[in-house]
Amino acid sequence: MKTFIRLTICLLTLSVYAQKDLEKELDTIVTVEQAEKFLVNKKSRKNKILIFNEEKHKTKLATKLLSTSVGSTEVVKSEFTTTHYKVIDKTDERHYRISYIFFDGNALDATQIVEYKNEIFKSYEEGISFDDLAKRYSMDKNAKRGGDSGWLKEGSLPVEVEEQAFNLDNKLDTLYTIRVPESNGFYIVLKTERIKKIKEIKVLKVIAK
Length: 209
Fold this sequence. Notes:
Elements: H1 2-27, H2 32-42, E1 48-53, H3 60-66, E2 73-77, E3 82-96, E4 98-104, H4 110-125, H5 130-137, E5 152-153, H6 159-165, E6 175-180, E7 185-191, E8 196-208
Antiparallel strand pairs: 1-8, 2-3, 3-5, 3-8, 4-7, 6-7
């Protein structure tokens, strides 16, 4: 019994020292590059860099981390593990949100695309929701969401699409068409939101036993 108690105390002591060593190591990490190097050295699938966006992530943890400054750490303890979340980067970038219907010009000929485009414009003017039209016509994987892109930042979609998404002259709830020559893609776009700056953070997640 005494041996068991000594062993338990020894393990607890080692765990405490390990935690302190980890905390000291995390204190030295102040950039994304250092966090990436840390992950390479640790070689654990559980440790990773997470991205939290104030529009997409509404959990208590995400909300708390988004309200803190770069360098802040949140520690979450469970029965078997202690998880450290350290904010290593914070940005406040322009985002856009649109809904779109996509046609692959490599799978459909131009005549068919024009025919579909005319049908869509006519149906939209007659009051058919864009959501329903996207589900019916779009060849993109987001068709099931009614063509909604969600909030995106620059570099997420082809440059031709983003030029129009960021164009302040394009009015909300108005359809416009875009052709992407490089991929032979064709888009019918509905601007659903005004340009908005959205806070986003990168968080180093480290799990310790």
